[in-house]
Amino acid sequence: MALARRIAVLELLVSSQLGGGPAHVEALMRHLDAAEFAVTVGAPAGGPFLDRFRAAGAEVVEVAADRLSPRTLGRVVSLLRGRGIAVVHSHGKGAGLYGRLAARRAGAAAVHTFHGLHYAGYPPGARAAYLALERALARRSHTVIHVSASQAEAARPMGLAPADRSCVIVNGIDAARVEAGLIPRERARAELGVPRAGAVLGTVARFDPVKALEVLIEALPHVPGATLVLIGDGPEAASLRARARRLGLEGRVVFAGARPDAARWFAALDAYVSASRGEGLPLALVEAMAAGLPVVASRVPGHVDTVAHGDTGALVPVDDPAALAAAVAALIADPARAQKLGVAGRARARRDFSVDRMAAEVAEVYRRAAEATV
Question: Is 0.85 surpassed by the pTM of this model?
C-alpha cells in the first residue's frame, strides 16, 4: 500500500524577530507530526527565529511579508506552486494579505490566525479601510483562527469571525519545558541586574503603545521598595526610559533587553504584570503562570481568558496605574496568598493551555483545508 502524501503547509509570518507570532509557529513546528505535514516557513530575513524554525525541522525561505510590494506577492505565488503547497497559514497583517491573495491564485487553501486585533491606533479612515480589507480577506479564507474566545467575541461584530469559517484555537505552551528551563532565583536576579532582596515585578513585551508599559512605570512609585523588570525592546524604548527618569525611578526600572526564551528568568520575579490595552492570548503571561507566578493584568481580551481573577491572580481596569499598584501591593503584603495564586496558575497553565492540544486542533484545520483543495 502506498504511503499517504504529506500535506505541504506554508507558515507565512511578518517577522522573524522575538515575539508571540514566531514563538507560536515554532511551537507548532515542534508538535505537528512530521510524518503527516511538510512545513515551510516564510518570514523576513534577519531575526533569530529563522534558525529556531530550522532546528524545529522546518524548511525556511526568506519572504519580505512585512512590506507592501507586488514582487512579494509574486514570490509567494511562485513558492506555493513550486513546492506544491496545499495550505497557507498566515500570521500578521502583511502575511495575511499576501497569503490569502496568493492562495487564491495558486489553488491552495488559506488559513489565517489573528494574534490580537491591533488597529485602534489607526486614524478613522485608515481603520475603516483596514477592517473592510480584513472582511474581504476573511471571505477568501478557508478558516480564520482566533487565539482566544474573547478575541473572537470582539471580532464577530466587525465581520472578522465569520460563523461559517472561523474557530477558536486557544494558544498553548509547553509548561514542562518552561519549568525545566527556569534559572534558579538568585542567579536569575543576578543576571537581570536586580536586587537579591525585595519584591521584583516583571513583564515580557514588545515596547509598543498597545502594551501600555508606561502604566507599569507609573504604578511603580505606589509599590514601595519594588523593582520592575521590562524584558523586550521596540520603538517605545527611549520614551519609556525618559519616563522612568522623570519619575526618579532609574534604579528601580530595569531594562533587561530582548531575550530569547525570556521565561528562563521568571524565577527572579515575585509577580508577573501586564497593563496591555489588548491581546490575542499572550504566551509570555501563560509561561509566567507555568513558572508559578501570580499575575496582575489589565481586564482586556486575551487576559480575561487567561487569568482567573482571584484564583490565579488579579484583573484590573485598563490604563489605571493606581488599581494595578494596589493589586500588586496586596500580593506583596501577603506572600502566602501570592504563593497560592501561583500554584493555581501553574495548574491552570498545564490543564488549559497545552501546546499538544493546540497543535492537534491546528492539524485538524490543516486536514480539512487540504481536503478542500482536492
Answer: yes
* E strand intervals along the chain: 7-13, 37-43, 59-62, 87-91, 109-114, 143-146, 166-168, 200-204, 227-231, 253-255, 271-274, 295-298, 313-316
Contact between 278 and 117 (Cβ < 8 Å): yes
Residue that the C-alpha cell 491546528 belongs to:
362
Q: Look at the block and give the residue holding cell 519609556.
A: 240
User: Strand pairing partners for 41?
Assistant: 11, 60
Cα–Cα distance for residue pair 326/223, rounded to 1 Å: 8
Number of residues that make up the chain: 374
Q: Are residues 125 and 231 in the same domain?
A: no
Q: What CATH number should be reported for the domain holding residue 19? A: 3.40.50.2000
Mean pLDDT by 10 residues, the chain (374 residues): 77 96 96 97 97 95 95 97 98 97 97 91 88 95 98 95 96 97 98 96 96 98 97 97 96 96 98 96 97 98 97 98 98 97 98 98 98 86
Output the CA–CA distances (angstroms, integers) from residue 16 to 77, 172, 265, in the order listed. 20, 19, 22
Within a domain: residue 2? no
Q: Is the dihedral of CA 299, 302, 308, 313 positive or negative?
A: negative
